[in-house]
Amino acid sequence: NIKGEIIKKENDSTYFMRNAIITTAEDLDDPDYYIKVRKAKFVPKKKIIAGFSNMYIVDIPTPLAIPFAYYPMVSGRSSGLIFPTFGEVNNRGYFLQNIGYYFVISDNFDLSLTGDYYTNGSYGLRAQSAYVKRYKYSGSFNLSFENNIYSMKGLPDYSGSRMYNIQWSHSKDGKANPNSNFSASVNLSSNSRYYQESYNQVNTSNFLNNTMMSSISYSKTFPAYPSINLSLSASHSQNTNTKSIDMTLPSMRASMERIYPFAREGQAKKGLIKSLNFQYSMQADNRFATYDSLFFSEKMFDDAKNGVRHSIPVSTTAKLFKYVTLGLNSSLNETWQFKTIRRKDFNSNTGKVGIDTLSGFDRFMTYNLGASLGTTIYGTFRFGKNAKIQAIRHVMRPSVSYGYNPSFDQYYDYYISDAYGNRSQYTRFEGGIYGTPSLGESQSIGFSLANTFEAKVKQKDSTDAEPKKVMLLNSLNFSSNYNVITKQFSPLNITGGTSFFNNKLGVNFGATLNPYAIDNNGRQMEKWNINNGGSLFRLTNANVSTNYSFSNKDKKDKNKDKNKQTGTVAGGRTDDLFGSSKPLSEVQDMDKNRKESEDKEEKKTYYKAAIPWDITLAHSLTYSNQARESTISNNSLMFSGNVSLTPKWQVGLSSGYDFVNQGFTYTQVRFERDLNSFRMSFQFTPFGYRSSWYFFIGIKASMLSDLKWEKNKEPDRVLR
After folding, report:
1. In sequence order, what are the beta bridge partners of 718?
2. Cα angle value 365/368/371 (rounded, 5°)
3. pLDDT tens-digit map of 273-288
């Protein structure tokens, strides 16, 4: 917005001004800030060329002044300088962060080059780009490099490191080609602790990230019957604590549509024969497991593991006695490996068993059989129409399954494993990424029971309304299995979840119960726990997690819904949704009385202004008692909240407490103030490894966004 004391119009495209003000404030008569120029040439929608320019805040001149200025007025994106952030940190000195230049290369592509400089010699370089092509694709690419020098040369804590980070995001528009898709989400670093060791303010919000993950994938569907899906991908996972890296490059998947060979097209697939179906799937992977120090080294590629697995699952279903579902299934699997091993007999000279790695193609084939029975049982308990809880509905889904895996002894050999001549079995396929053929027959019977509980509750405010459905337990599941060969049961697993207070409080829980006793050394015995002087089950693991979110907006919405239910509107029949008709004069009187009542109520509640707020709480508890250790390995409470003290003041806090380690988790306090044309914010981490603060005040409009002041205290490096 531009306003001049004296304006001379030369033509439709050129104006000359004296004592003009330039501002992004909406109120030109009383702006909260403006730049005053003594003389200026104004070309609408293009530029302003001005002489002496001075910034005023609330009509008070500031020291911010320049002898001449150029103000671009072009709408949309434009190339230009990126103003830096100033600050200091104890072991690096003073710094400039994010200084650089922004390039508008085309309508579909841009590029920003920025850098950091610290007076102790540290520096950082970044290239960021975004691209888009309408109805085709969109994405962004970020490349960062940092040369970090800690302390000063000659001091005992002097050290240095170099690290880089690559981020790439790409997505394809679904309208471009429905039968193919390409997507990418890459976050790759040379150092797993990139976010923890980076001092740039941009990375502060990510320093709690413990895992960096990446994936690039291309998929294509061949729609002709039977349709075939083909995908090619690469993935990577980087742990910031252990510094381990797991990468798959490449990974290929292929699958064929399910085929029903005994059912004609359009025919119902009922019965064991007509519902008999099979599929085909293939996966091929080349996997790397390494660490930061060996990333992309020769050893990483030498230790790569690869293979191909083919699978043909066959299944069918049928109804038994109308209510029971019978399922039969089998799977034929073949695995290809390109590296196998050969164990040598025990060498008395070295005292070890030698292992040779053989390169070349080899394969093994396995199969399995299975069957299952399942049904659904509904039960309703009624308590009468006048009862608060009118009915409870219980849905049970019991199932029994049987699985059989034969022994594939033909893939196993013997070797002498010690100096006493003892022989042990091994398979040459050890170390493969898809496992090894099973040795020894296995048969198991599985049991599971899934439950849900739902209630019908009489509504409090109305006798005519339908009872309200309330979920008591979203899930309560029990599962175990019986090994037919060893004649032992596995532990009983229990999981469940529910919610309260209109789904605002969520509760999830789980437990593991072992029916067998343990000896004094903590080893499981082939003896029931109840026969060993204990209870029916031993509680070996338990966990519970809760989360609760609430705000004063919930109460407002509840009152609003209540007013909607009790309010009446004139018009319609007696059985109409809006009630019966009334004379016009009566309707007008009702409106007048209602308005007077609302005005009185507003005066009463004028000093009871509601302050918007919201709070989120989360608690997690894990208990372990595998060998009578009876320990709580995790007991933490997390909380966060936001309060709008005024329509333009927002305050936030997020923190937590770890009861096991007895300390607060990452804590941050946030303040933000809307100053009309300006925005002010303050973030403060009071203690911990990332203790720091950041203050910002600047103009909100992008045209003058470089008119800002930033100040931060970066966290000091802690040697670990």
Report:
1. none
2. 165
3. 989 999 999 999 999 9
Q: Which helix (H) or strand (E) holds 96?
A: strand 93-106
Both tokens assigned to 421: 């001549």
> Cis before residue 226, ω within 30 degrees of 0?
yes
- Residue 616 tokens read as 């989120």
SS (H, E, C) 646-693: ECCEEEEEEEEEECCCCEECCCEEEEEEEECCEEEEEEEECCCCCCEE
- Spatial separation of the C-alpha atoms in residues 50 and 76, rounded to whole Å: 22
**Could you give the CA distance from residue 319 to residue 297 in angstroms, rounded to a whole number?**
58
User: Whose structure tokens read 């507003």?
Assistant: 602
| Cα→Cα distances 565→574, 592, 712, Å | 16, 21, 52
Whole-Å CA distances, 521 to 35, 527, 632: 80, 15, 20
Strand partners, 675: 678
Phi, psi of 564 (to 5 degrees): -65, -35
Q: Is 564 helix (H, G, I), strand (E, B) or coil?
A: helix
Q: Cα 267 vs. chain centroid, distance in angstroms?
A: 43
295 Cβ contact partners less than 8 Å away, ≥ 6 residues apart: 190, 245
DSSP code, position 52: S
Distance CA 228, CA 223 (A): 7
Identify the H or E element spanning 598.
Answer: helix 584-604
Q: How far is residue 269's CA from residue 680's CA, in Å, rounded to a whole number?
A: 65
User: Residue 533 is encoded by which pair of tokens?
Assistant: 């002087």
CA distance 165 to 235: 16
The Cα 277–Cα 279 span in angstroms is 7
Q: Which amino acid is located at 56 in the chain?
A: Y
Amino acid identity of residue 429, one-letter, is: F
Reported as a single tens digit per residue, the pLDDT across 98-155 is: 899 999 999 899 999 999 998 888 899 999 999 999 889 999 999 999 888 877 777 7
Q: 2 and 21 in contact (C-beta within 8 Å)?
A: yes
pLDDT of res. 86: 79
Measured between alpha carbons, how far is 341 from 334 in angstroms, rounded to an integer?
A: 19
Q: Which two tokens stand for residue 213?
A: 């993950």
pLDDT of 207: 67
Helix (H, G, I), strand (E, B) or coil at 588: helix
Question: How far is Cα 282 from Cα 295, in angstroms, rounded to an integer?
Answer: 29
The tokens for 304 are: 């790569």
pLDDT value at position 373?
95
Q: Which residue has the tokens 């006048």?
A: 386
The residue among 719, 535, 518 whose CA lies nearest residue 628 is 518
Beta bridge partners of 116: 124
> In terms of C-beta density within 10 A (0-12 exposed, 13-18 middle, 19 or more buried), how is residue 570 classed?
middle
CA–CA–CA angle 92, 94, 99 (5° rounding): 110
Helix%, strand%, coil% for the chain, nearest 5: 10, 60, 30
What's the rounded Cα separation, in Å, for the pair 105 and 130?
A: 11
Judging by beta carbons within 10 Å of its beta carbon (0-12, 13-18, 19+), is residue 616 exposed, middle or buried?
Answer: middle
Place of tokens 């790397």: 288
Q: Note the pTM of the prediction, 2 decimals.
A: 0.72
Give the Cβ contact number of residue 40 at 10 Å. 23
Q: Would the CA dihedral through 63, 68, 74, 77 be positive or negative?
A: negative
- DSSP assignment of 161-188, as one string? EEEEEEEEEEEE-TTT-TTEEEEEEEEE
Contacts of 184 (CB under 8 A, 6+ apart): 139, 168, 169, 170, 215, 216, 217
Give the Cα separation of 183 and 232 in Å (integer): 11
Residue 56 has pLDDT above 50, yes or no: yes
Pick the closest to residue 198 from 291, 213, 190 (CA basis): 190
What is the per-residue pLDDT across 524-583, written as a single tens digit (0 to 9) for each? 888 999 998 888 999 999 999 999 988 877 655 555 554 444 443 333 333 333 333 344
